[in-house]
Structure formats: C-alpha cells, structure tokens
Write a structure and sequence with these properties.
Number of strands: 0
Order of helices and strands: HHHHH
Oligomer: single chain
Largest sheet: none
Number of domains: 2
Helix content: over 70%
Structural class: mainly alpha
Distance between the termini: 19 Å
Number of helices: 5
Length: 169
Amino acid sequence: MCVTTIVSQMTTKKVESESDSGSTDGLFYWLISAIEYLIVVSLLLVAGVVLVRTVVDFFQQWNSFPRSVVGAIDGILVVIILLDIAQTVFGHVRTAIFPAKPFLIIGILAGVRDILSSSAHLTLGSSLTQTNFKDTLISLGVGVGVVVLLLVGLVLLRYSEHEGDHSSK
C-alpha cells in the first residue's frame, strides 16, 4: 500500500469523524483534538518559561561567564526542541499526519545539545574523577552516534522523497 493511499485514507477518516460530531466517534475526536491543543499550549508555555529563566540565569551568573554561556546555549536549545515538538503536534492536529522528518530534526537537536553539555562538562569540570570522566566520554560517544544515525535517517528520508518524486512523473 503506497503512502499516498494511506494519507488519503487517514484524511478521509478525519473528515468522516468531523462530520459525524453527534456520535461517540465525533466526541472522542473533539476530545483528542482538545487535548492535543492543550499539549501545544503547554509546550509553548514551558518554552516561554525556560527562555525567560535562561536569560535571567545568564545575566545573574555573569561572574562565571563560561558556565553561564554553556547554560544559556543549553536552555536555548531546549526552547528550540520544545517549539519544534509543539509545531509538529500542531501540524498533526491540522492534518492528521505525523511526519517523520520533524522528529529526526528534534532528535538531532537533542543529540547536539547532549554533545555540547558533555563537552562543556569535560572542558569546565576542574576535578573529574576517573569514573565521571569515563561516564562523560561514554555520554559524548553515544550522543555523537545518535546524531550520526539520525542524520543518516534524515538523508535517507530526503533521498526517498526525491526518488518518489521522480518515479511518479
């Protein structure tokens, strides 16, 4: 079964459930939609709080500048991840399609955030025990591996989209 057929079936089911608002299915559809909108609003609220807190912490910890910069970058990356998740969920509410590409990008951002955090921990950690050093290196290696795998997935997804475009012409 091709992707276009699945998407059209999903869209048809969504339209049918929208027009059938008097039935139990319609009630569940609207309840799920309301919860999805609440999730989007909650993610936006959390992203706003994290952004404000990041900026405030950055200026309050001005004396320890390298640590405050790393904390600010970490906070900003968290905000970007939250906004990407909110946008993906909102897109799902509007189209009833859950695309893979945004999740790959969110995973890459989260992996980069983890790499930056581990790198900063190694660089700024004045006295790391041997165990902490090994754990940080393992975390760094896993983060790099995850980012590389997700990038490969993103490239494969992009390549498969282009192949699908050429075969349909």
